[in-house]
Amino acid sequence: xxxxxxxLPRAPVDDLEVHPRDNDLVAGTHGRGIWILDNVSAxxxxxxxxxxxxxxxxxxxxxxxxxxxxxxxxxGQGILRASNPPFGAVLDYWLGEEVExxxxxxxxxxxxxxxxxxxxxSGTAGFNRVIWDLRHQPVPHDTTVFDPPALDVGPRGxxxxxxxxxxxxxxxxxxxxxxxxxxxxxxxxxxxxxxxxARYDFTMALYALQQVGYHAQVQAGQIxxxxxxxxxxxxxxxxxxxxxxxxxxxxxVALADSLLGEIRVAASEVRRxxxxxxxWWRGLIGEFDGGxxxxxxxxxxxxxxxxxxxxxxxxxxxxxADLDEVxxxxxxxxxxxxxxxxxxxVEIPERxxxxxxxxxxxxxx
Length: 365
Hints:
By secondary structure, this protein is an alpha+beta fold. It contains 6 helices and 11 strands. α4 runs parallel beside α6.
């Protein structure tokens, strides 16, 4: 016997049925209702020989790209409605023994091997399951340095193109496994390849903007904090006390204070502009990928949406221009003052990068 490592309650099971269409295992329990294990291919595919391997990544049932209908149920419906099967590709794997720090599953472009997504998985011995939501790697979302606006979509990446990808199980001391993952387009919404590509390129550009704003704000906050610490150190020097300062020293401290003010103003402006512009961005991305109360679409962009994207890109560029000026002019001027007093320079953290505009070349089927 092996644990499923799933959420099956500890209850007597009176009946088992494998759904003939969906290949789901349906368990009728005594007192806990009906429990469903979506897709039991892994159970039927684990042979005695495979169970002796350190790790097995089972074949993946093709996943379909589609948009859920956003429904806000009444209280009664909300209580009685069961969960839908998970959206995306179901990745089942077997571990012969526990992996203390867990495992990773990389989703790769099979053409050039580039990594589109890294998924964290349990390292528990036996059966395990991870769901890939058919999206690229999301932008980091450290809310201690980035305050997302209301109704923000959160840390998610754009949907991938339909095609065939490679899932690779890693993080083990020895062994590993890989398998193909086929992503299909919604068969109920046939569109020409050109429109599917146009939609993909448009959402890639939108999510790239999300990352530009996030990384600019993080960099601005880090610079402002480091500059504050440096100026505080300058003022704490024994020869920086008001009663011992010469005229030249007074001028230097005042200039350092002024430069710090410019840095903090620029950081606040990046935050303000980013918050305002994310509202525009959120409206656009909601029309394609949906949101907390928005139904998305699989169609390509229209002329109005392209114009709004162009405007938003320009506004984002303006929003980080002041920060670039701080990085190129204000910080060097402040560091010159600090160097004269033997204080370490304010280091400029590298601004993070995000999505590449290059589109994965996953093979179409």
